[in-house]
């Protein structure tokens, strides 16, 4: 199963959700933000190489870390040298080999955000409880509709206790609230999923719920 | 019933094909390119425009539809440059592909100007998998970096002329019937021999003109002296 983690706006926590959801689902996290990659990259081939035909998708997956990861190159020249239409085949190949894929989509509404959504069986929309983030999330929701990818959950990141029914109504999916959390920040600093770093934390429970919701779509 | 009207014009070794399709009722049509050479489709955001692939065009005609494409093929290599190979009632299936998304929403890759000077511009794969020349070579600039030797487009052209000369020399040196037959087959047949001769005549003229221009530019390059130190002091 391929799950796309999308957001209209950058900086709302897409990469954090991707990494932790991939850990929960025992899936490969793919950083598909070709121009502004966030997930850590190591040595060896990356998604730029895959989309430029220099490496196979499966051989670019880095195993051995807390989460299997297909990282993305950091250079703009590398991003410019890619064929974005090759992403669908690359994600399919990783899914065939590993079973599960969670894709970190780029922010925005251009085709680079649309193509991973098109490949995905379902998507998760990450946003923040701010006016700009919600209005961008509405546009991202439209993009997901345009490519006919079902939305499983809206993740309202770093949100205080609040009423979320109106957001769920506007975006057309249940909302899962992730509170501002020191355990998420600490896990991120150490490069670990929250479930490993702070298994009893609220954030870890919420990621578990998110994974269960994604699982329910698969079955 | 769908009718197809074709028209070709040739300019600079490229054949431009104009197609006019007419149908009284909405009909899904597939038009195939028939000339002996690659099809260069119109492009949107760097990908072939909706309905185009390396073999032709597919889409719905309702009334009149005008289309056009280019090809390096000679217009005489087929009786008609394109023809209708399939017609059927239109279906409601939406075309959801990565290419459609790029056409509709725009390419997300960074623009050329965002890439640092000196980094080679990327090449764009054509529909048939061949690569067109790099943008910097087409534009004639080098992105700010100092270039050693001639640009790739010039090197590629010279290599092509050299290949043609090699073929011509093989043809000229054939002394037996077997050698001549092999040499003619090597260039693709008797018709190709004629076009090779014509192309080499054009190559000769272009090379002479280029040589004159190169001499002139080299003389000017040697004669001019930029007062680097003075300008640096003034700045």
A few lines on this structure:
Chain A has helices at 14-25, 47-51, 76-80, 87-98, 111-119, 131-146, 165-171, 182-190, 194-197, 202-218; strands at residues 2-6, 28-31, 69-70, 101-104, 122-127, 151-157, 175-178. Chain A is α/β, with parallel strands linked by helices and 219 residues long.
Give your account of this protein's structure.
The complex is a heterodimer of chains A (219) and B (235). Chain A has 10 helices and 7 strands. Chain A is α/β, with parallel strands linked by helices and 219 residues long. Chain A has one domain: Rossmann fold, CATH 3.40.50. In chain A, strands 3-2-4-1-5-6-7 form a 7-stranded parallel sheet, sandwiched between helices. In chain A, helix 1 (14-25) crosses helix 10 and helix 4 (87-98) runs parallel beside helix 5 (111-119). The mean pLDDT of chain A is 91. Chain B has 235 residues and is an alpha+beta fold. Chain B has 2 domains: 2-104, Immunoglobulin-like (Sandwich); 149-234, no CATH class. Chain B is 37% helix and 24% strand. Chain B has 6 helices and 6 strands, in the order ββββββαααααα. Chain B has helices at 98-105, 135-139, 152-173, 177-187, 190-223, 228-234, and strands at 2-11, 14-33, 43-44, 47-48, 56-71, 82-88. In chain B, the strands form 2 sheets. In chain B, strands 1, 2, 5 and 6 form a 4-stranded antiparallel sheet that branches. A two-stranded antiparallel sheet of chain B has the order 3-4. In chain B, a hairpin with a 2-residue loop joins strand 1 and strand 2 (14-33). The termini of chain B are far apart. In chain B, 14% of the residues are buried. The A-B interface holds A 34-35, 76-77, 79-85, 87-88, 106, 108-115, 118, 143, 147-148 and B 45, 47, 96-99, 101-102, 104-110, 112, 114-116, 119-120, 122, 125.
